[in-house]
Amino acid sequence: MIVSVDLGGTKTRTMLVDSGKVVKQITFLTEPNKGRSYIIKELFKSINYVIEGQSIEAILIAVAGTTDGKVVKEAPNLKIKNLRLASIVESKYKKECFLENDANAFTYGEFVNLRSKNKTLSNMVGVTLGTGIGAGIIINGTLYRGFNFSAGEVGHMTISSEHRKCSCGNYDCWELYASSKFIRRQYLKEGHRKLDAKEVAQLVKSDKAAKKVILEFSKNVGVGLVNLANILAPQIIVLGGGLANIDMLYSQSVNYFKKHVLPPLREVKIVKSHLGKEAVALGLFHLYKNNLLKDKKKSSS
């Protein structure tokens, strides 16, 4: 058995995985504003809960940021930089600990699942929509990480010229216009009370302002998907994360995509996550079992 942790900017989900199935889990609010010590304390509490009375092989952690497998290099939405998280966990539990980008883990989990049904699948992109935006890239059946493990940070590609500052320090990043941040900000701008993104999405049938915001959000998602398809030409783009199930998002973003992507790429399929909240945990499990976490440098080329 292994422990798989999905360490997100809003929520963290800690899961016990046995033979490719999640058998126990717990979720806690990450609350990055309380600092890294708080996050680590709550992480330990969640791990203690899922492993109670069990013998585990390893602890695997997916983070919303860049990592070389042992150090969280930069995670803007977690307010963490250069944290040796793996060694901290290993010191506590005396078990191997490996880190992976959360979107990479999500994408690999979805890829293994889809590949089991379609052996011709070899090129895919997974996009996670939530507090920020991340992506995992599969090229010729291999998870592509880039030369320094930072590939897939698509939430920080520039898509506007409004000169709005992102948490990464840059301006006009995609995630400023196609994440929960955008939905909350725009709904407030329309003169309404502060609500979280999912609450705004639930109001689209009764609230014109909410509908306007979700339509704009969906179009912005479509803009980024067009860019990804034009650059990478994947067979499939899988949408996941906390915002992927907003009803209007899928139809509106796909419509925008079909109108604006290059004609040869209209065949690219856009689908919702098949594994849902367990995608990251199962992706970590398969990466570990295939030795793609233990020998990360070899798998990044």
Describe the protein's architecture and organization:
A hairpin with a 2-residue loop joins strand 2 (11-18) and strand 3 (21-29). This protein folds into 2 domains: 2-101 and 278-299, ATPase, nucleotide binding domain (Nucleotidyltransferase, domain 5, 2-Layer Sandwich), CATH 3.30.420.40; 105-274, ATPase, nucleotide binding domain (Nucleotidyltransferase, domain 5). The strands form 3 sheets. Strands 3-2-1-4-8 form a 5-stranded mixed sheet, with helices on both faces. It has a 5-stranded mixed sheet with strand order 11-10-9-12-13, sandwiched between helices. It has a 3-stranded antiparallel sheet with strand order 5-6-7, with no helix packed on it. It is globular and about 50 Å long. It has 9 helices and 13 strands. The protein has helices spanning 36-51, 85-93, 102-115, 180-189, 197-201, 208-232, 247-260, 279-289, 296-299; strands at 2-7, 11-18, 21-29, 58-63, 66-67, 72-75, 80-83, 96-101, 124-129, 133-139, 142-144, 236-240, 269-272. It is an alpha/beta fold and 301 residues long. Helix 3 packs across helix 8 (279-289), helix 4 (180-189) packs antiparallel against helix 6 and helix 6 (208-232) crosses helix 7. Residues 297-301 have low confidence and may be disordered. 45% of the residues are buried.
